Amino acid sequence: MDRLRAVARTFWVGGIWMVGLMVAPVLFASLDKVTAGMVAGKLFANLAWIGLVCGVFLLADYIWRVGARGVKEGTFWLIAGMLVCTVVNHFAVTPIIAELKLSMNQAAEGLFGGGFATWHAISSLIYLVQSLLALAYVVRRDS
């Protein structure tokens, strides 16, 4: 079980960092914005499903190992926070972005105008929070 836990943690956290910090920036530096966005979107969608599977496994495994007192521990909340970030970004924010891409009406966008750039920024902020939670999770001794 230790090995499976290590693989799940590495696959999920490594994916978060690799796609967000390396692959997406390279795509946008190398390709036109439309193609880069399409490929990045597919990568982030696949990573979300990986995160859902790995996150649920890691959370269940942690509770199995530590017991109910695990909900009082930082590791539980780091995994749960990463999982919440995945769920919110994939099932709430991404569909809004996809809809806005179809219309691409960015008139009167403003700071909280609900346009593509605003929702993309919200998604990026959630991803940043998830990445920082992942860092804290990886460096914890009891994970």
Automatic annotation (TrEMBL):
Report one GO cellular component.
membrane
Keyword set, alphabetical order: Membrane, Transmembrane, Transmembrane helix
* Top-rank lineage group of the source organism: Bacteria
Its localization reads: Membrane
Domain TMEM205-like stretches: 10-104
Transmembrane ranges, per UniProt, are 12-31, 43-64, 76-98, 118-139
Tell me where it mainly resides.
membrane
Designated name of the protein = DUF4149 domain-containing protein
